[in-house]
Amino acid sequence: MTATASVREYLDGRGFTYRITGSEATMNCPLCQDTERKFSINLDSGAWQCFHRNRCGKSGNLYLLQKELGDEPEQSYAKTFVKVYRKPDVKAHSLDAAAAAWFAGRKITQGTLDRFKVWQVEDGRIALPYFKAGTCVAVKYRRLPKTFSQEKDCEPVLYGRDLVPADAERLLIVEGELDALAAWEYGIVAVSVPGGAINTQWISTEWNFLKRFKGIDLALDGDPAGEDGVKAIQKRLGWDWDLSRVELPEKDLNDCLMKSIAVEAVKRCIEKARALRPEEIKLLRDIDFATVEAPDPGMACEIPGLTEKLGGWRLGELTIHGGESYAGKSTATMQEATGALRRFKRVCVCNLEQKLSSVVWTMVQQSGMNRADFVSCYADELVLLDLHGKVAVEKLLDLMRYVARRYGAQFFVIDSLGCLEIARDDHWLRQKETTAALAQFAKDADVHVHLVHHLRKPGKDKGVQVDHSDLEGSAWIRNLSDNVLLYRRIEDADRRQQANLDFVDEVVLVDKNRALGTGGSILLTFDSSTKRFETARER
Question: Engineering a disulfide at 195: which of 157, 199, 289, 473 sits with its beta carbon 3.0 to 4.6 angstroms away?
Fold first, then answer.
């Protein structure tokens, strides 16, 4: 059976519907349930990728796809080819006086050279043989002072691997053969990568050898190439081993030997090696205590009484402004945007429900300025996204990232969630993903995002009371946001029921305040001439 037939057999067996163009099959991603055929799989190799970057973006081979979908991978889909390596045929002899003197200058003794079977070939090159189970499987050559070559098509293995004790629990890996020789001079057993710091080809052939060890200490060179090599090895190995980064007082072990760094100091560096772990995991000692402080009070809010309840608009947060149609949520959000401009903050507004001219007119009214002065003052501070109708979430996020980088905007308004193009299949899950993406953008860009959202129509028995259960759609909208403000317009019927609402036009409820945990209601009046909410008082 060909590879193409194997891949197609699996897709057909799962009942997937796909289109074929050349050697590529495209279909809806089975991992993120997209409906736009953003998933592509190569019928020859089985390599696949989902091109929904913000939602999924996963990739792999056919074996990994089967694992992702909960299937047991069949051997016919996971076959590997066994490469036949060439064994080197080298006519070698003992080192001549010049080569021996060069090693002596590097403080490498004849005993160590004999232990590693360092030879010399007829044209004068030094031969550094690689052994595996007692057999020479590769040879690297060095023509003094520093010209390298190697036998072609040989098996990539670790230099000095046969000298590692059978009962060793940890493996020390260095970047060059000279460093492995220097380690031996220190009484330390080390192996060297065969082809430079970032070449990890050897991991495939040495996988079973590496599985012998509980931990691996990486003493690659202390330079950018060495750091890149550590990252490359860690990426290939994952976290199945206890990995650590050895930081030496000199660039490498041979430099330490030549500069007479004491063996105790070198061993101490190995014992105190810095543990490697996923970047997301932090120990308390990793935290900069200068940054441990109470939540930032944030920028003062524009609506009276809101700063006292909320603590201000903090960067890195997402706020939901929820309310029924005509409840005042959009107007209140624009009042906050106008206030941010007044406080010298660059603002980005994306109103998917109104024309740009209407948005600007409202902000001019709220600012108390005439149109000419408003434009003159904020011509470069107010960024508007000219988007309307159903807009793809990915497109909106791309534009927001651009605005944050290009213009340094810190205050973003999106009106509203209901106008974003969110797939109808599993709609609530898509709302969750959209909210999560906006919250992550706020953190990554260090901005505050205001997202306007609609409420379900609350039952008549609730009166003027609204809460987060009235938000339309998924409960994750509230769960993933940092703050939730709920708006309720007060009607004459409400005033007849509650005497304390005689002079109130609007009730704003701080339903969630993740940073401070405070909340409560604010009673406001609305001035239609200025389009602003003010503190409720007798009229």
Answer: 199
Task: Note the Cα 151 to chain centre separation in Å.
Answer: 40
Are 58 and 101 contained in the same domain?
Answer: no
- What pTM was computed for the model? 0.57
289 within domain boundaries: no
Same domain, 173 and 101: yes
Residue 28 lies in domain: 3-77
* Contact by Cβ (8 Å): 172, 190: yes
Strands annotated E in 163-316: 170-174, 191-192, 215-219, 242-245, 274-275
Q: Are 391 and 402 in contact (CB under 8 A)?
A: no
In a domain, 294, yes or no: no
CA-to-CA dists, residue 325 to 112, 214, 474, 476, 521, angstroms: 83, 62, 19, 21, 20
Q: Using N-to-C axis directions, what is the helix angle for 371-378 and 356-367, rounded to 10°?
A: 100
In a domain, 64, yes or no: yes
Q: At what angle do helices 393-407 and 427-445 cross, to 10 degrees?
A: 10
Beta bridge partners, 150, equal 140
In whole angstroms, give the CA distance from residue 226 to residue 209: 22
Three-class SS string for 339-392?
A: HHHHCCCCEEEEECCCCHHHHHHHHHHHHCCCHHHHHHHHCCCEEECCCCCCEE
Q: Which amino acid is at 244?
A: S
Check whether residue 404 and residue 508 sit in a common domain.
Answer: yes
Please report, for the domain that includes residue 48, its CATH number. Answer: 3.90.580.10
pLDDT tens across 260-271, in order? 999 999 999 999
Q: In the structure encoding, which two tokens stand for residue 181, read together?
A: 């020789």
Closest CA to 537 of 494, 497, 502: 502
Give the span between the Cα atoms of 154 and 138, in whole angstroms. 5
